[in-house]
Amino acid sequence: MNIAKTTIFGAALACGIASTTSAAITANYGWEDGGTIMGEFQGPVSATNISNETRTGTGALRLTDATATGSGTARGYVARITGLQNGDTVNASFWAKDISGNGIRIWGKYISDASDINNYAGSAGGTNTYSDATWTELSKDWTFNAGTDRIGIVIEARIYSDPGDGAYIDDISVTVSNDNAIIEFPAAVPEPASIALLGLGGLLVARRRK
């Protein structure tokens, strides 16, 4: 989960989770912290954090179709919203700019397991608007359909292209009407020094347990 470079309006932060007692919460993420995607489907996809092609700030996502044939619709998961109740409204948007190909669309899928990004409980649908050669905002509103066991929505960036095609993505924003909802974005990539410290911490724990 992610809190770095994430702006929460009217909300409290706890381990990258946005929650508040107000009527709605909004969370923004711009890829400045090195994150990429939370998962993928019908890939593989190539997801790279970049700094040379951004809409704002110092980071963005480069998402391309890495399949051999381009069959299916490759997609990357860029946000997850859980803790939803039937009838809650969710708005998500991000900006995209084509690298090559037919562009990408914003889409959503329902999930029934908050711990598994690959869980699938039905399509939530998406927009008919595609990205193009200039930065374009792609946005979608959903009214949550809880069905029998759904608890959330995963936001997808769907690639409609041949192998190697894709788009740059930046500045994702999610607004939820439910003040108990949890909004998550891609995890930050630790710096090498941080990885070393984490490894050292693990060694210290291991030694204490001996």
Gap between N and C termini: 31 Å
Number of strands: 15
Estimate nothing, just give the exact number of structural domains: 1
Are there runs of 5+ residues with pLDDT below 50, and where? Answer: 3-22, 193-198, 200-210
Our estimate of the beta-strand percent is 35-45%
For the largest beta-sheet, the strand count, sense and barrel status come to:
7 strands, antiparallel
- Give the name of the CATH architecture: Sandwich
Helical amount: under 10%
What does this protein look like?
The chain is mainly beta and 210 residues long. The protein has one domain: Galactose-binding domain-like (Jelly Rolls), CATH 2.60.120. Helices cover 9% and strands 44% of the residues. The protein contains 1 helix and 15 strands. The strands form 3 sheets. Strands 1, 4, 6, 7, 9, 12 and 14 form a 7-stranded antiparallel sheet that branches. Strands 5, 8, 10, 11, 13 and 15 form a 6-stranded antiparallel sheet that branches. A hairpin with a 2-residue loop joins β2 (12-14) and β3. The protein is globular, with a radius of gyration of 18 Å.
What's the layout of helices and strands?
Blueprint: E1 6-9, E2 12-14, E3 17-19, E4 25-29, E5 39-41, E6 45-50, E7 60-65, E8 75-82, E9 89-100, E10 104-111, E11 123-126, E12 136-143, E13 152-159, E14 166-176, E15 182-184, H1 192-209
Antiparallel strand pairs: 1-4, 2-3, 4-14, 5-8, 6-7, 7-14, 8-13, 8-15, 9-12, 9-14, 10-11, 10-13
